[in-house]
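ok, trying the design again with the full structure, not the truncated one.
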């Protein structure tokens, strides 16, 4: 099966300039790594499920910017909302109230589960995690946080302190004190890690960068119960899973669990603007009622970003997009489940929920070969940041069945090729 991926005219000089600048002024080693994989061109334009580079290659985007492009690239309704806002006012005056921010606060209170109500807005996932940690500590007046091995929460110093991968964390130590890491998906180790200094447990309802791990049913409910019994806060990091990715608007709704702090980013900006947010239950805002400027951000919740988010939430909550995510996710998972059986030397396991799917390979080295082969088929994927053995598939929700079939057929070829290489 084939899909028609057009090759565009390109200007070789424009492409060389971008690569040179990246190598000379931004991140030489990263640029070199991408070049080795065959990604030797800068992105030029994007639309829907497709990205075109400066060499004129058009790729099917099955990575979706690690979850940013749930609505695809440049969704027309989001672009329209941002353009309209741009014609009125771009950034905040920082003295007058902003209408789009206030309306977004109301919308998040309506769509987040339970009595989650007040929101703080920032510009990224890590910033939102920082805010969650700070408000948890301020609310409980204790410093301790329980997090999970292989959990990913960002790379700013606070977020890094609770990110469960030594390779990212150790070189930046000393980080925040009193962080306890426990295995993901298990409740007993959480109980053992509790002490009188713990303020909160932070968890991804499906662990994304750790390798796409869906916890056993009852895990989130169990965490909620422990938090209630111990009087500590539950922080759900839904930066990646939130806003429809797993087929639920929020992944913790799979167990009807209401966290004390919900952390969002990535897809919230509709794939057009960067925005992060936390939405919290009323007790967590007590400190802000007393000290309204205790946590602020110059650009956080600016009118352009909030307009994009409002439009994105409209698209996500009207119609049957979530149902489509569930159906397409089940279809994809079903198609991929055959690979560990027919290629056991390359593929160990396939797992996921909704359109967040992980393909665990038997060896880390196989990942590069599979990804390079998929590039030959003009498909973009990437491995998960905390577990390079797992290739994550995270396409826009509007990916069609034909495009999913194209991906599965290309992956079949890529794995077959990898099996042959590994047998040499
Ligand atoms: C669950 C989770 N939390 C936080 C972050 C950090 O987000 P950002 O890269 O926007 O800082 C990520 C990024 O991948 C994430 O997956």
């Amino acid at each position: 099966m084939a899909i028609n991926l057009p090759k565009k005219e390109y200007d070789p000089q424009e492409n060389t300039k971008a690569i040179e600048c990246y190598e000379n002024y931004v991140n030489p080693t990263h640029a070199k790594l991408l070049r080795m994989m065959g990604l030797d061109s800068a992105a030029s334009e994007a639309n829907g499920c497709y990205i075109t580079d400066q060499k004129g290659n058009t790729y099917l985007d099955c990575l979706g910017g690690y979850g940013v492009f749930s609505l695809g690239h440049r969704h027309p309704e989001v672009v329209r909302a941002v353009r309209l806002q741009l014609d009125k006012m771009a950034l905040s005056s920082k003295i007058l109230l902003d209408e789009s921010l206030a309306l977004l606060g109301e919308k998040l209170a309506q769509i987040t589960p339970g009595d989650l109500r007040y929101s703080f807005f920032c510009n990224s996932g890590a910033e939102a995690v920082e805010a969650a940690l700070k408000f948890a500590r301020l609310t409980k007046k204790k410093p301790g946080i329980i997090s999970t091995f292989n959990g990913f929460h960002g790379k700013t110093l606070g977020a890094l302190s609770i990110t469960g991968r030594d390779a990212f964390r150790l070189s930046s130590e000393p980080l925040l004190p009193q962080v306890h890491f426990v295995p993901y998906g298990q409740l007993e180790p959480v109980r053992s890690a509790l002490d009188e200094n713990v303020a909160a447990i932070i968890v991804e309802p499906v662990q994304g960068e750790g390798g796409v791990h869906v916890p056993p049913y009852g895990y989130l409910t169990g965490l909620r119960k422990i938090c209630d019994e111990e009087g500590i806060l539950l922080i759900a990091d839904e930066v990646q899973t939130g806003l429809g990715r797993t087929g639920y608007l929020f992944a913790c709704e799979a167990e009807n669990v209401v966290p004390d702090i919900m952390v969002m980013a990535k897809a919230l900006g509709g794939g057009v603007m960067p925005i992060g947010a936390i939405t919290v239950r009323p007790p967590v805002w007590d400190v802000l009622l007393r000290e309204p400027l205790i946590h602020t951000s110059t650009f956080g919740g600016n009118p352009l970003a909030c307009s994009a988010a409002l439009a994105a939430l409209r698209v996500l909550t009207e119609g049957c997009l979530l149902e489509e995510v569930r159906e397409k996710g089940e279809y994809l998972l079903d198609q991929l489940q055959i690979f560990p059986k027919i290629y056991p030397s390359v593929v160990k396991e396939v797992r996921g929920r909704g359109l967040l799917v992980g393909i665990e390979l038997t060896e880390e080295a196989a990942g590069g070969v599979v990804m390079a082969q998929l590039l030959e088929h003009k498909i973009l994927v990437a491995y998960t940041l905390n577990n390079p053995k797992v290739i994550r598939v995270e396409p826009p929700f509007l990916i069609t069945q034909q495009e999913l079939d194209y991906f599965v057929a290309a992956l079949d070829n890529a794995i077959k090729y990898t099996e042959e290489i590994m047998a040499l």
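Keeping the full-length input from now on. The chain is about 40% helix and 15% strand.
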